[in-house]
Write a structure and sequence with these properties.
Layout: H1 2-26, E1 35-39, E2 44-51, E3 57-63, E4 66-71, E5 75-80, E6 86-91, E7 103-108, E8 117-126, E9 129-139, E10 144-154, E11 161-166, E12 172-176, E13 194-198, E14 215-218, E15 223-228, E16 234-238, E17 245-250, H2 268-276, E18 284-286, E19 292-298, E20 309-314, E21 320-325, E22 332-338, E23 346-351, E24 357-361, E25 380-386, H3 409-416, H4 418-421, H5 439-442, H6 444-453, H7 478-492, H8 500-509
Antiparallel strand pairs: 1-2, 2-25, 3-4, 4-5, 5-6, 7-8, 8-9, 9-10, 11-12, 12-13, 13-14, 15-16, 16-17, 17-18, 19-20, 20-21, 21-22, 23-24, 24-25
Helix pairs in contact: 3-7, 6-7
The structure holds heme C.
């Protein structure tokens, strides 16, 4: 019965998607004229496409009525907010891009000068090694000149971070990924899995917490968003493994726990670690994961409902989340969710001095969600307060269908597995193995142990050695694990099933 309902539901969803796809194709010429409205408690927001036909606009920053942005394959472009024109400022030819690596973030010096410094970071190959390179340019208003490489750190096929942020005193922060290497984040002498703090020529500020070190804080996995509030508090958004995506309030010398502790301290093992070494818990964590990306701080009176809030965009849950801060700035008071599934994956968010908010989509990246990309993707979208009343509008999303998930293999699979192994189970070439006809899936005991333990030893799967490990899913309840195991086995394996009894026994032995 339930399966039947879900079928009807997904038919409905795909029809709506097809339908809107059709009508938007007709309207493609005028995509920039078609708008959505969003209703907040008191205000309306106009949602308008400002640029389209882009490829993964990963980072954005603002200067002089322009939004400068990166595209993952190596372009730096400029959107002129007066004319609406997009112009290419720079094309890099040495970018190494594949799934998540590429040209990532951009940040602009805070200055009255006409030629501010512009910082970008991207992955490239030096001999056969991947590195992450931080490069400074000068912006002439027309192009980017005088490149100077300030720093390179280790890069990898995944977990390169990364965000750049410049504070009002022109101190530059760079959030680096742990390059999928478990030794990095806890080693304060390496530059990976860190928030680094430097001057605009890449040197170590005198007031850094560790003398002669760029390291400001550590214990991070893969930061994808970074923002600073009006008082100078630094916040980051980062990807958890299979659980516990995080927002952190980042302070000098604090250790955020990865990989010893994941998210909030809530297991015996984690308590034990935290008793030995002081580790800081996140302000907010999400399980099931939402895949957080860009983060911005909003405090303009233009949208009163969003004052003193962190704006977080997400990839997997395809939403904008408004996290209002409490008055001491150290806690999330409320969370409001908007646009789920409407524009697809969202990568970057930027709050402008005039109170507008810009978002970028990421539907042409390596991991598009069902129904995307649309023809005009990727886009840069503007949110602006709209003073008049409107007839039809979008509303805040109601989230958390968790209660109906427990025994529903389809939903559980979608929530915990499909982001990597894909809804059709076919995975992503050389990154996530296919589950279709997998010998592990066919062997129920081995499959159950894998979900309980995660990857324990590296082996080749059909001739491919996967760089990333798979996390343990032992945090799921027995009923939930059994639902997933049986669903995957029926869909992609040999249709053998297991029971809660069998799983309980394996868990005991584990
Ligand atoms: C964050 C990405 C990610 C998620 C989420 C994920 N996996 Fe995996 N999975 C991997 C990777 C990477 C490997 C390969 C690991 C290795 O070989 O070291 C893998 C391996 C597997 C294998 C072994 C395949 C074989 O042929 O040996 C199975 C089965 C599997 N995953 C099932 C699942 C199920 C079921 C879920 C959901 C509960 C899940 N995975 C969630 C990344 C993921």
């Amino acid at each position: 019965m339930r399966t039947y309902l879900i079928l009807v539901f997904s038919l409905l969803v795909s029809c709506t998607v097809l339908f809107s796809c059709q009508s938007l194709t007709d309207k493609q010429q005028s995509i920039q004229d078609s708008v959505d409205y969003l209703k907040l408690e008191h205000s309306y927001i106009e949602v308008r496409t400002m640029a389209h036909g882009l490829k993964v606009p990963w980072g954005m920053d603002y200067v002089n009525n322009r939004v400068l942005f990166t595209e993952i394959e190596g372009n730096v472009k400029e959107l002129d907010l007066e004319t609406g024109k997009v112009k290419t400022l720079l094309q890099l030819h040495d970018v190494f891009t594949r799934t998540t690596p590429g040209l990532l973030d951009i940040a602009i010096e805070k200055t009255e000068k006409k030629n501010p410094f512009v910082f970008i970071n991207y992955t490239k190959k030096v001999d056969s090694a991947i590195v992450s390179s931080l490069v400074r340019y000068q912006y002439t208003g027309d192009t980017l000149i005088n490149p100077k490489e300030l720093l390179t750190v280790r890069g990898a096929n995944g977990h390169n971070g990364s965000r750049l942020l410049i504070d009002k005193n022109n101190i530059l922060y760079w959030a680096t990924g742990d390059v999928a290497n478990n030794k990095m984040a806890q080693d304060s002498t390496t530059l990976n899995g860190k928030v680094l703090r430097m001057t605009l020529d890449g040197s170590i500020p005198k007031d850094n917490p560790i003398p002669n070190s760029l390291v400001y804080a550590w214990g991070f996995r893969n930061i994808q968003g970074m923002a600073m509030d009006r008082l100078g508090n630094l916040f980051t958004a980062e990807h958890g493994d299979a659980i516990e995506d995080e927002i952190n309030w980042v302070r000098p010398l604090h250790n955020y726990g990865w990989p010893l502790i994941e998210g909030v301290h809530d297991t015996e093992q984690e308590f034990a670690v935290a008793r030995k070494t002081i580790m800081t818990e996140p302000m907010r964590a999400w399980t099931p994961v939402i895949a957080p990306a860009g983060l911005a701080y909003y405090n303009h009176s233009a949208i009163p409902e969003w004052q003193n809030a962190l704006l977080l965009v997400t990839l997997k849950s395809q939403s904008l989340r408004v996290l209002t801060l409490n008055s001491d700035q150290h806690d999330v008071k409320q969370e409001h969710v908007f646009f789920t599934g409407r524009y697809g994956r969202l990568r970057a968010v930027l709050a402008l001095p005039n109170g507008d908010v810009f978002l970028s989509t990421s539907n042409r990246d390596w991991n598009p969600q069902p129904g995307f990309p649309k023809e005009y993707d990727d886009r840069i979208i503007r949110l602006r307060i709209h003073k008049k009343k409107v007839g039809t509008y979008l509303q805040e999303d109601t989230v958390g269908a968790n209660h109906m998930m427990r025994n529903n293999g389809v939903l559980l699979y979608q929530n915990y597995c499909a982001s990597c192994h894909k809804p059709d189970g076919k995975g992503v070439d050389r990154t996530f193995p296919s589950l279709v006809n997998s010998s592990t899936v066919k062997n129920m005991k081995q499959f159950s142990m894998l979900l309980l333990r995660g990857t324990t030893l590296k082996k080749e799967i059909n001739g491919v050695r996967y760089e990333q490990d798979m996390a343990s899913f032992s945090f799921l309840k027995d009923e939930e694990l059994v639902s997933i195991l049986n669903y995957v086995s029926k869909q992609f394996g040999n249709k053998k099933v297991t029971t809660v009894e069998e799983l309980k026994n394996l868990r005991k032995k584990n």
